[in-house]
Amino acid sequence: MKNTTSIGIMLFYAVGLAAGCLITNCPRGGKRGLHSYMKKLAEEKMALAQVPLQCARCGPEGEGYCMGPSICCGPQLGCLLASPATLNQCAGSVLPPQSPNSPAPTCYMPDGYGVCSTDGVCCNSESCRIDPTCEVDPDHNVCNVWTEPKNMAL
Predict the structure, then answer these.
(1) Is residue 63 within 8 Å of residue 141, measured between CB atoms?
(2) Neighbour count for residue 8 (Cβ, 10 Å)
(3) Where is the signal peptide (predicted)?
């Protein structure tokens, strides 16, 4: 009886030790491979942050650019908010968050910073407001500026 109990206890511990080897959700390369995977992800995000903003064209004859899911602005057009055409053309469009250091002409919105989308109009992805300090060069397109690289922490 004593022998059977000892064998049972040893078998229980052996199964417990072996179960640790059967974990299937480890990252590629094991636990140590996780750091290099996270570093690669951060590098990819950094590269994406330096790609020029690509805004969808919108408005009559494609004269404007989508500033948000229901906002279309252009130098000759001004801004169209929630018009039927804008809702179809700009669905899913979102401007990245802006800061005073952004390369695009920035302006102040009550909930943060926005972009001067046309003369006298400041927009973010959700709304626009009149801002007399916004002056946009007609040859300048807010959507052709580089987005600001973000610091990625590992």
Answers:
(1) no
(2) 10
(3) none
